[in-house]
């Protein structure tokens, strides 16, 4: 029991505050875990919303990400670093200080070991530092570590390259749990999505700016640019306009626009070609000119070529076929070739021809040069527009994916514990975005089989067969079997080439033949690398799924796992809550009964009523009755019911009943001291009396719980139910046994109370007698105390007096021996006379000492005789033990007077001496 917690006693039970608080702690813990999971989902949804709303506002996305990460992980500081060359400046932070920002501004991290950020840059993996103060490789200033102990760094990767680092810190040491690391990794992935979106947008903006600037400059001066602006991305009308305008304005009869590709010129557009020349020219649309040809010189010089008379050209004179055909069939005499250059690279050629020998003017050449530049602009515009459309499609697809993910997260947050709407939303989003025709979601059973829990758009013929198979057990050759083996996604572009189809595995065969599936994508649902289920989507055309689509379905699979885990936790929470509610209800009922027992220690009837009322309430619609065994019969004592089906008054008229175990299950329960249950009184083995009382009382099932006191049955608690087959659970039976024990406690309390009352009367009479005897004993005790004091003093005097008397007598004898010794010596008469006088005087003194000592001894003996009357306590004692004790006292007393005194004690006690009735104190004095 913790300090400050006081136990409360109820009868034989002790209820502490800890027991009362335990259910609350369990509920609080489960609620905390559920709140944490929902908070993580909500935070992820919020981040996705910010990304979708702020597609091109990277800073707000990063700020939202790091703030959410700090809040959900209980961190005190968070930072996001993004790559700029070899260093990673700080781009977003949460809960930081000005000193922290200044430090990272002056010391942007790079690959190394001096900080968590540097380690992530170097390794490209998650780095966790349990305590930066004890890490010998940390190189940050000490003052910057004052509020940092535990640190987590997560890489932001693009194509396996670190593009940024997300760092969280805590003020206390310790590792971050895996759940928080996974959450921060999700935030890092979302940050990379936002960074990629912003980068794509910047690229498109830059390209569009160049395009707009070029179009603005050229549109004002050229009709060609108007065509370009009216037909963005369409080169043919631009080329046709260029050729027609150039030929018309420059008085040329026909023209060509050739594009330069792989060392050759391909005809991209023609204007007014003579038919004879066109027939021959268009059969060979690609020209590979030699250096002697005007086109060859243009390639070499990257400059325009102006030929006044083609017949004077060396290529014509040497019969180069393309130029000969140009002159002979097309009638060309003067030509102008203007290169289309993009940053000094040849893109193509604008060629116009006159059928007369007439040189082109400088203004005409400038015009055609302008047209060539415009053609290049048109080509570049078409390329940029194509890229823009591709980028726009990518962004639209990414936004669509994010929106779908957000929708799934919303369904998860709106429907905690409900898996069907989540699975349906996932399948609908996956099939729609991935242009699949139908799909299903499997959950893996413990026996290795896949159970379909959700479907969408299954073809009717396939659905009819598929839904009859509740579980699929795929072999290794089946795509589902490969998912089990690899824990990775499986994509099949042509199902008819699959071994499962070729070998005729029935579920796969029906999928192809009845469902029309041609391409399959199976994505595993993993929880900590453990396979939970599979999301399967199907196309009815042979078309592979893109990497982005696979990533999207993988994200959906992760969300499905989150939903399953949430549902499991919520189910556990509800079960625990139900168990705790039931337990609390039972404890409350038990406590109420104990209160009644405490308030009615001498009356069992209120306790009986409380027990039957609690039983009827807890096990409604049961009825409860207590019967007691008295004088060979079972008597009705108390009953309670909450339904009108049990007629207590009619049933009570049948009591008392004989105590017969053959006729009465109550008697059987009492004799065997065990609970007896009858699930249906209409069963043949039910005693006739029980069946008849059940008919009268209106019940079908009945339970008898014995009341046992000191291994003897004294009664029963009877629980009846109007429904046949009703049985109490083990927990309910235990509770009924507790009720029975409480009833026995109440009975025992009443019995003890009666005994205490009778004993109290007896003690009152004895008390009066004791008071009278006490008055008589007071005087006797005083005299006895005086006698004991006198005896003690006399005993203490007697010992030294004995020593005086004994040594005085001994000294007299020694004087006589001294005189005898002196007579043998040669001593003069005078000395001898003096010696005799002294010895006589000394001997006389000793005789007087002996005389007075005997007188004193007589006085002591008289005192002992006087005090012995009534002194001490006469009682039975072990004589051997008294002698042993006296012997030890004497020995240790002698050693106390002389430290060198030592003797060996030899004991020889008679074992049969036994117990003697004597005064132990007086006997020890004798010794």
Could you characterize what this model shows?
With 927 residues, this protein is α+β, with helices and mostly antiparallel strands. The longest helix is centred in the C-terminal third of the chain and has 94 residues, at 730-823. The radius of gyration is 57 Å and the shape is elongated. Residues 1-16 and 213-221 have low confidence and may be disordered.
Q: Helix and strand layout, with pairings?
A:
Layout: E1 8-10, E2 13-15, H1 17-53, H2 58-72, E3 77-82, E4 90-94, H3 98-106, H4 116-123, E5 127-129, E6 150-158, E7 161-170, H5 178-219, H6 223-230, H7 235-249, E8 254-261, E9 264-271, H8 275-281, E10 286-287, H9 294-301, E11 305-307, H10 314-317, H11 321-328, E12 334-342, E13 345-354, H12 362-414, H13 419-433, E14 438-444, E15 450-456, H14 460-466, E16 471-472, H15 479-486, E17 490-492, H16 499-502, H17 506-513, E18 519-527, E19 530-539, H18 547-599, H19 605-618, E20 623-630, E21 633-641, H20 648-652, E22 657-658, H21 665-672, E23 676-678, H22 688-697, E24 701-709, E25 712-721, H23 730-823, H24 829-868, E26 875-878, H25 879-897, E27 915-918, H26 920-926
Antiparallel strand pairs: 1-2, 3-4, 3-7, 5-6, 6-7, 8-9, 8-13, 9-10, 11-12, 12-13, 14-15, 14-19, 15-16, 17-18, 18-19, 20-21, 20-25, 21-22, 23-24, 24-25, 26-27
């Amino acid at each position: 029991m913790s300090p400050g917690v006081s136990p409360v006693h109820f009868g034989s039970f002790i209820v502490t505050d800890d027991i009362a608080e335990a259910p609350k702690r369990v509920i609080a813990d489960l609620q905390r875990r559920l709140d944490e999971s929902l908070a993580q989902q909500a935070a992820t949804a919020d981040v996705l919303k910010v990304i979708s709303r702020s597609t091109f506002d990277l800073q707000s996305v990063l700020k939202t990400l790091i703030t959410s990460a700090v809040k959900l992980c209980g961190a005190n500081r968070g930072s996001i670093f993004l790559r700029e060359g070899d260093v990673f400046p700080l781009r977003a932070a949460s809960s930081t200080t000005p000193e922290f920002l200044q430090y990272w501004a002056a010391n942007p991290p790079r690959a190394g070991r001096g900080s968590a950020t540097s380690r992530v840059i170097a390794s490209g993996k998650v780095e966790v530092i349990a305590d930066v103060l004890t890490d010998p490789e940390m190189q940050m200033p000490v003052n910057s570590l004052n509020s940092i102990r535990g640190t987590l760094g997560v890489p932001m990767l693009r194509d396996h390259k670190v593009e940024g680092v997300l760092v969280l810190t805590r003020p206390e040491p310790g590792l971050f749990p895996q759940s928080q690391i996974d959450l921060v990794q999700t935030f890092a992935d979302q940050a990379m999505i936002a960074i990629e979106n912003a980068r794509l947008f910047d690229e498109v903006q830059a390209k569009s700016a160049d395009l707009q600037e070029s179009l603005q400059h050229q549109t004002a001066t050229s009709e060609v640019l108007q065509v370009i602006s009216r037909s963005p991305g369409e080169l043919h009308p631009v080329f046709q306009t260029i050729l027609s305008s150039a030929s018309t304005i420059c008085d040329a009869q026909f023209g060509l626009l050739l594009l330069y590709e792989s060392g050759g010129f391909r005809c991209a557009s023609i204007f007014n070609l003579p038919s004879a020349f066109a027939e021959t020219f268009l059969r060979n649309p690609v020209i590979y000119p030699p250096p002697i040809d005007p086109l060859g010189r243009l390639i070499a010089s990257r400059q325009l070529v102006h030929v006044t008379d083609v017949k004077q050209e060396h290529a014509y004179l040497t019969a180069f076929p393309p130029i000969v055909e140009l002159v002979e069939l097309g009638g060309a005499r003067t030509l102008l070739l203007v290169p289309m250059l993009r940053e000094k690279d040849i893109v193509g050629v604008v060629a116009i021809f006159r059928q007369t020998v007439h040189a082109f003017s400088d203004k005409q050449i400038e015009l055609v040069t302008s047209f060539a530049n415009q053609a290049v602009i048109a080509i570049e515009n078409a390329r940029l527009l194509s890229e823009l459309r591709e980028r726009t499609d990518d962004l639209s697809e990414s936004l669509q994916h994010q929106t779908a993910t957000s929708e799934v997260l919303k369904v998860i947050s709106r429907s905690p514990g409900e898996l069907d709407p989540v699975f349906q939303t996932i399948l609908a989003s996956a099939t729609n975005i991935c242009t699949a025709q139908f799909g299903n979601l499997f959950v893996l059973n413990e026996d290795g089989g896949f159970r379909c829990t959700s479907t969408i758009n299954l073809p009717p013929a396939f659905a009819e067969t598929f839904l009859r198979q509740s579980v699929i057990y795929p072999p290794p050759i089946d795509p589902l079997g490969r998912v089990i083996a690899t824990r990775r996604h499986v994509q099949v572009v042509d199902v008819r080439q699959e071994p499962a189809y070729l070998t005729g595995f029935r579920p796969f065969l029906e999928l192809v033949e009845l469902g029309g599936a041609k391409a399959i994508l199976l994505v595993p649902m993993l929880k900590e690398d453990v396979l939970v289920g599979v999301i399967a989507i199907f196309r009815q055309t042979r078309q592979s799924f893109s990497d982005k689509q696979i990533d999207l379905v993988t994200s959906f699979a992760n969300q499905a796992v989150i939903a399953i885990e949430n549902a499991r936790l919520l189910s556990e929470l509800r079960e625990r809550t139900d168990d705790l509610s039931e337990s609390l209800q039972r404890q409350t009922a038990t406590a109420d009964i104990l209160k009644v027992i405490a308030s009615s220690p001498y009356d069992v009837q209120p306790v009986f009523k409380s027990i039957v009322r609690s039983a009827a309430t807890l096990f409604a619609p049961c009825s409860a009755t207590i019967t007691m065994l008295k004088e060979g019969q079972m008597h009705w004592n108390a009953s309670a019911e909450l339904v009108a089906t049990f007629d207590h008054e009619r049933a009570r008229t049948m009591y008392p009943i004989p105590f017969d175990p053959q006729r009465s299950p109550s008697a059987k329960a009492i004799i065997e001291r065990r609970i007896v249950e009858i699930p249906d009184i209409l069963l043949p083995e039910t005693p006739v009396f029980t069946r008849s009382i059940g008919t009268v009382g209106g019940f079908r099932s009945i339970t008898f719980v014995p009341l046992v006191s000191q291994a003897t049955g004294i009664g029963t608690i009877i629980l009846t139910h109007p429904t046949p087959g009703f049985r109490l659970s083990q927990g309910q039976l235990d509770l009924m046994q507790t009720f029975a024990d409480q009833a026995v406690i109440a009975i025992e309390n009443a019995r003890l109370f009666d005994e205490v009352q009778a004993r109290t009367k007896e003690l009152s009479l004895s008390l009066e007698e004791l008071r009278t005897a006490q008055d008589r004993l007071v005087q006797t005790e005083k005299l006895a105390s005086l006698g004991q004091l006198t005896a003690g003093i006399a005993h203490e005097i007697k010992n030294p007096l004995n020593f005086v008397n004994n040594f005085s007598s001994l000294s007299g004898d020694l004087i006589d021996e001294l005189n005898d010794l002196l007579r043998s010596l040669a001593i003069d008469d005078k000395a001898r006379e003096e010696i005799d006088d002294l010895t006589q005087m000394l001997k006389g003194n000793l005789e007087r000492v002996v005389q007075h000592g005997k007188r004193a001894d007589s006085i002591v003996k008289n005192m002992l005789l006087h005090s012995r009357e009534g002194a001490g306590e006469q009682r039975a004692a072990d004589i051997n033990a008294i002698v042993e004790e006296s012997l030890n006292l004497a020995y240790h007393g002698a050693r106390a007077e002389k430290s060198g005194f030592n003797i060996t004690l030899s004991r020889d006690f008679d074992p049969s001496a036994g117990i003697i009735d004597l005064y132990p104190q007086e006997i020890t004095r004798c010794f």
